[in-house]
Amino acid sequence: MANAIKDDEISILKEILKWIKFAGMKEVKTVLENELQSEQEKIAYQNSDGTKGTRDLAKLVGVGSNKTIDLMWGKWFKMGLGESIPVKGGERFKRSFDLLDFGIKVPEITKEKPNSKPEEQNKTE
Q1: Cβ atoms within 10 Å of 54's Cβ, excluding its own
Q2: Whole-model pTM above 0.85?
Q3: Which residue, among 52, 35, 55, has the nearest Cα to 97 in the 3D structure?
Q4: pLDDT for 37-75, tens place per residue?
Q5: Domains of the chain in sequence order
Q6: φ, ψ (nearest 5 deg) of residue 92
Q7: Half-sphere exposure of 43 (CA within 13 A, CB side)
Q8: Is 87 helix (H, G, I), strand (E, B) or coil?
Q9: Which is nearest to 109 in space by CA: 46, 61, 53, 58?
């Protein structure tokens, strides 16, 4: 009898969770779109999956300092867009949402040669 009640409660909780997620999707998308204005912010957020530190992410995104990423993480954490996870030597931010699930395009990461500009390449050809 006790297991049947637990199963019913779990079923009800799953149904409530489904509707809460549905009800919040529009609001989450609006917050993400308003907060992640630049390509760098979108790339940084999408790649904040808990596997990269601030230095790695700063290089990936192309910002000058890991402090920039740290500031982004702090802001996003306060907004509820992710969580803080423990790692060796400290903590990292892990995003709660996948931008692609909300139809938000994430720019591709391009790796260009240092000091190489398209105009200069055309002049030498």
Answers
A1: 22
A2: no
A3: 35
A4: 999 999 999 999 999 999 999 999 998 889 999 999 999
A5: 2-124 (1.10.10.10)
A6: -135, 155
A7: 15
A8: strand
A9: 61
